[in-house]
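Example (one chain per record):
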Amino acid sequence: MRELLQSFAVIIMKEFFRLCAGLKIDWKRLIFAGAFMTTAGVILQMFLLNDPLDMWPLSLPIANVSDESLNSIRSFNQTFSEGRVKRLELISADVPIVPPDSSLKLNLSIPVMPYIGTVPTGRSRRRKKEGNVDNMSKVIPPPNPPRIHVPYRLQKFIWSLTPNEALVYAKKEIDHAPEVIDDPDLYAPLFRNMSVFKRSYELMELILKVYIYSDGSRPIFHVPHLNGIYASEGWFMRLMEGNRQFVTRDPEKAHLFYLPYSMRQLELKLYVPGSHQIKPLAIFLRDYVNMIAGKYPFWNRTHGTDHFLVACHDWGPYTVTQHEELANNTIKALCNADTSERVFVAGKDVSLPETNIRNPRVPLRNIGGLRVSQRPLLAFFAGRMK
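Predicted structure:
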């Protein structure tokens, strides 16, 4: 039977090609040949395959399914479902899911994913003349570290909280932080309580939102200074304004408010060399804060306690003295963290490391060195001895 069908198919194909070559096509014969070959192909598959095709009307009758087969199917589905549930439990064991009605009583430990990246160190074949580094649009900041993996239900729960509720939730979580005895990424002797620090850092990455004021004229505002010994404040501004994880455009959702001015730019634009007068800089900053307080309700709501500034110049602490609330209430990240000046307040303000950036296009080049235990110098002093 199979040999007969194959011979007939060969004859049909030869006839088809002969007709096509002579451009004389008999469409009736062609349609008949196509229908016959389709039927023959189905019959061949039914005889040659172990499992016949389930095609109507050539399919075999369906046998009745016994109770035993149904039970086997149910047992398979049950086993599959149990395995899936166990797998989901293993996946969510490290990061539990928070129900929306948890009433801020859950204690979670969310792992932080460290950023692992490479820094290009090769030199370009072409050396272009560098212009003003303050307006270098081609400077590419390091990529943002990946966010911690958080289940959607937990994210939705956090998003539903107001800023004050989120802070209450974070405080309860920190008070009940899981004990961390040893962490490969942290040096325990540096922390008063490593468990509290680790938990607060995790919550910061999960909850914190910052609003950046768009006010202020350039270049003192929104133009970072990216090279030299005062580059820390410039790179903070650049990375913060380009950040998508912490920055929010809705001030009602913000926990902190950033005053985006550059102390280095303020000194370059307003200070008169040789005058030894920095009071004009402080008056300029005072007027800026008064403008913010008169235009937005957020400063007056807390008297500036949830606002912060970043200044790496030595004059940073002195430029806030003309505004009482700015000096006493605002969080200040300063490279000149001198408590004797009564401007930097330990426990509220932040000490910002002063880093000399030689090449803004490759900011991480020439930074680093030996480990602390292998360095011969503990510290050094640059300046005048009084």
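Caption: Residues 67-91 form the longest helix (25 residues).
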